Amino acid sequence: MRNKRILLVLLSLIMQISGILAQNKSRYTAVSLDRKVTALLKKMTLEEKVGQLNQYNGFWDVTGPKPQEGKAAKKYEDLKRGYVGSMLNVKGVKDVRTLQKIAVEETRLGIPLLFGFDVIHGYKTISPIPLAESASWDLQAIKKSAAMAAEEAGAVGINWTFAPMVDVSRDARWGRVMEGAGEDPFLGSLIAKARIEGFQGDFSSNKNILACAKHFAGYAFAEAGKDYNTVDIGESTLHNVVLPPFKAAVDAGVLSFMNSFNELNGIPATANAYLQRTILKGDWGFQGFMVSDWGSIMEMQNHGYTKDLKQSAEFAINAGSDMDMESYAYIDHLIELVREGKVKESTIDEAVKRILRTKFLLGLFDDPYKYCDESYEATTVGKPEFQQTVLEMAKKSIVLLKNNNELLPLKKSGQKIALIGALASDKTSPLGNWRLAADENSAVSVLEGMQVYKENELLYAKGANVVTDEPKFVFEAQLNTTDRSGFQEAIAAAQKADVVVMVLGEHGLLSGEARSRVDIGLPGVQQELLEAVFAVNKNIVLVLQNGRPLAIPWADENIPAIVEAWQLGTQSGHAIAQVLYGDYNPSGKLPMSFPRNVGQVPIYYNYKNTGRPQASDPGTVFWSHYIDEKNTPLYPFGYGLSYAKFEYTDLKLSAPSFKDNGKIEVSVTVRNSGKVAGKEVVQLYIRDLVASVTRPVLELKGFELIELQPNESKHVSFTIDKKMVEFYSANNKWEAEAGEFKVFVGGNSVQTLSANFELLD
Question: Which of 106, 124, 356, 742 is close enough to 687 for a disulfide, judged by CB 3.0 to 4.6 Å?
């Protein structure tokens, strides 16, 4: 049995290497690539091998003198000796070329460097934050957005991005929800694939860069939504919820992974052999390499898992963490550990081969200066067509949450409109977090977008600042909780207006890494401002700019129109204005549930039914509920309105059951009964009614984005087969179990048509 498993793993490895080579149009075969890597490895000293596992942060302004002391001097000397495999946070062709030239022309073996950077949702030209892009449910648009980011980053010398983040995120308190695809593993898997294909392409030019699936694994399940906190989840959640997007990343040909800061089952992910060796490199046959997150090897001492940095290096490399990001653990201790017999040199060799293989596939051995063309840099960064790409992505990301009495779209003439909110004129906040290379004040503000429509009178009032000072990436933002001096100006503007547009929410640096929040309502005094304006003019359109789901029950109860506009990037203001005025019909659907109250969090659509899902008798208390709030979210997963109106009818199944190799066709009729054309995301969900481990009440299993003219109908069909109903079972494997199922089709996870079917033995 053991030999059979080893054979299957070896076959999987060969198939994956061949698949990656074919996908990336490599000039190498699997055999020739292995020969190249092995031949180079044989020439390397142990010190040079360890050097390939070492990643340093940028340390030198190449326009100045060479570093002479401290860490910078050590890094410089290590670079010249060939003891560095990668650099991060080095950008610009001049800097990259200088460092690459040292690695290629001044070291003994001339092995080129990887240059990594956090290109999360754009480099200089900024797309919507990833959570916003996910609201589009438009996989081709998401892929195009990633390809644009890769092209711009590649033009400045970067050949590796630390994206996409594929963590399934259920807790809106956790700031990094902005960086992922939301709460669903199926949608998250498809978006992971789209972004990886967009970043990596076929590696044929410097328009393609290396992608990195992160954070492996469970990072988003940090207790209490507090970043870097402990994670404690069961095997079923790990395999059925957390891991699928990572497996999809491997299947899409991603060539690097990043491990996570958290522990899992009491073992820090960086030293978790079950994750890295058993699952990733064993069961899945992953052929790329694993990089630690910043300092995560060193931080194992803080976890209480290792006694010192040397032991941290030992545990990390033996568990399968191939490259050390800024812990200095490998470069300082691996050679000694090999000589002591605590780490086998073959373990080092395996890690080095993974990194060398990736550099060959990226084309760096063919042309180390592939990403170092200054003329290309000058003509590529900020290209006009990039602006159109991010504008289209931004419009597709907007979600219409409420539109009572068809307050939207706004009339284009003859109205007096009050625009209120500090975020309405802000040109930096809409860039969101993780926009490290973007210029400050480079986004189109909502005010500027609204000013394009000149037939209405536009009155602007700030109302109140969200933060006291412009926050910085590495420092906490300070909320404005006291200054209400602008309220009266806002109230006066609202009193004069036919319609009030209020732009409220989070500053772009209130979400992201290390930006956990316990209060996920409108920050600072914005709720007070909203209520003060409402008291004098109830005709309000609330435009939310935020990086996470917010709890806004008062607004939902009182405000007639609400638009979720996230942090939409460089073209934010134009996208929002075009939606508000009806030049673009919103079609976004929520990738995360919005809670009524932070006390419901984590809240998600694919929850378990429990043993007491409802009261046995009306009025009794002994069932799973809150005594002071509803169980349901304020806005559910998959929810989003349109200026069109869509009706679902005539759900049909081609058969009531199917067997092992069979299938069932599910069809539904969708009609646009509205007055304007619109796009709709038709969603398919399945429930496994009885299984060897308890299953969620719903699971997204398919969707289709359609466009309908007024009064047009379309028949939409999906195919259900055995693979669609597989899950990680009590047998500790992925399989489908015979039994009864329920299928749901609709425009969100709540309002659906349903039917039953059966999988037979």
Answer: 742
